[in-house]
Specification:
Radius of gyration: 13 Å
Strand content: 15-25%
Shape: globular
Largest sheet: 6 strands, mixed
Order of helices and strands: EHEHEHEHEE
Helix content: 25-40%
Distance between the termini: 29 Å
Structural class: alpha/beta
Length: about 120
């Protein structure tokens, strides 16, 4: 599993996750720092990345496209967290979420809980 961090997250977070053995890169490393969300979404899906963002637009793209990939992790704590805090939260919780992420899910880290919803959002007809 490898992670692609959106432009609204610090590149430092990618480095911190890498240091913990969690393969991560920032959109900046791929020349996507100014790309539209749809382009970042497509890149993540094509390259088998899990998208990590604070931006709910990726959830909207998943719903609109009825997509089952890429998995998306949304960091929605309600309060600003440092990259160090974000890395601790992600690293501590990823082992329990691996099956859901591998299967295709949107995972929302909220203030006091983690919500997981499997993809696609609706059943194909």
């Amino acid at each position: 599993m490898k992670f692609l961090l959106d432009a609204n997250l610090s590149p430092r977070l990618a480095r911190l996750l890498d240091e913990q053995g969690i393969e991560s890169s920032h959109v900046r490393e791929h020349g996507l720092q100014r790309a539209a969300d749809e382009s970042i979404f497509d890149f993540a899906a094509e390259q088998s990345y899990v998208l990590v963002s604070e931006d709910t637009d990726f959830g909207e793209i998943l719903a609109t496209r009825n997509a089952d990939r890429p998995s998306v992790i949304l960091l929605r704590s309600g309060e600003p967290l440092t990259p160090d805090q974000q890395a601790v939260i992600l690293a501590a919780n990823l082992p329990a979420l691996t099956d859901d992420i591998d299967a295709g899910s949107i995972v929302v880290f909220g203030r006091a809980r983690i919500r997981v919803r499997r993809l696609p959002f609706t059943s194909p007809d």
